[in-house]
Write a structure and sequence with these properties.
18-stranded mixed β-sheet; Diaminopimelate Epimerase, Chain A, domain 1; alpha+beta; 2 domains; 18 strands; single chain; 4 helices; 43% strand; 16% helix
Length: 288
């Protein structure tokens, strides 16, 4: 008896080193079990490798729908680096034209402005990340805010952390530190991610303040581990920096995979993120 084999066309892309495997579902069927596919295709040693899987699907409300799965197969509401890559793919591959796009993700519609190179390909993208969500119950966290969770001290396994909680469509716990060490990110990141005070788990940002307009960030990402960049996390860091008085409303954020520019606009209350998007290679994944 022979097993049935399925072949999927994919494209590998990254935004500031935050890399995902992208599947164009405009031109092929949606995979039957995307959660299992995410776990297999994202594996760094036995698959294509990436921080997860993103399906680029048709949307009734926007130019495309970003359907995102983490490395462990869990679904995620939003990825700022991922949505820039979706915009690049949609524009560069002729799914939609123009210098601006609307992309659906996590039930929301995001507006994106495209910056094109001399070859008419997308070089960088500015994303309107929307208003930060600060009410503790909406982040969500069971920590009590007054009215928000800003520089609140919590204790985990005998160690204290000063945390600021922000949702950018997914939950973030921002911790400002003198140095974002491996010990903090790799050992304490997963403990904070799974702490019961964060009922949907949480993304954890460890942030060094270089100046009021410049920070360095390392991220322990919910469901994926440490990633080289996190766009929603960088947006949350911009908000947390203002709320705690550490940074201004416009910052440059240095991540392991590259730099992002963030602006928390006072008039609209929206956060805007600008960064690159890169297509690495395409291929076929055959499995059964």
């Amino acid at each position: 008896m022979t097993s049935s084999m399925t072949t999927i066309q994919f494209t590998k892309m990254h935004g500031a080193g935050n890399d995902y495997v992208y599947v164009d579902c405009f031109g092929q069927a949606v995979p039957e079990d995307p959660a299992e596919l995410a776990r297999r295709i994202s594996h760094r040693h036995f698959g294509v490798g990436g921080d997860g899987l993103i399906l680029i699907r048709p949307s009734r409300r926007a130019d495309a729908w970003m359907h995102m799965f983490n490395l462990d197969g869990s679904e995620s509401e939003m990825c700022g680096n991922g949505i820039r890559c979706v915009a690049k793919y949609v524009r560069d591959h002729g799914i939609a034209g123009g210098d601006s796009l609307k992309i659906e993700s996590g039930g929301q519609i995001f507006d994106l402005e495209l910056q094109l190179g001399d070859d008419d390909k997308v070089q960088s993208v500015t994303v309107d990340m929307g208003r930060p969500i600060l009410a503790p119950s909406d982040v969500p966290t069971t920590l009590a805010g007054n009215p928000h969770v800003v520089d609140q001290t919590i204790s985990i396994d005998g160690r204290s952390f000063s945390v600021t909680c922000v949702s950018m469509g997914n939950p973030h716990c921002v911790i400002f530190v003198p140095r974002a060490t491996d010990d903090l990110v790799l050992d304490w990141g997963p403990k904070i991610e799974n702490d019961p005070r964060f009922p949907n788990r949480v993304n954890v940002e460890f942030v060094e303040v270089v100046s009021p307009r410049e920070v360095r960030q390392r991220t322990w990402e919910r469901g994926s581990g440490e990633t080289w960049a996190c766009g929603t996390g960088a947006s949350a860091v911009c908000v947390a920096g203002v709320l705690t008085g550490r940074t201004e409303r416009i910052i440059s954020n240095h991540l392991l995979g590259g730099d992002l520019t963030l602006r928390w606009d006072a008039a609209s209350d929206h956060v805007f993120m600008t960064g690159g998007a890169t297509e690495v290679f395409s291929g076929r994944w055959t499995h059964g």
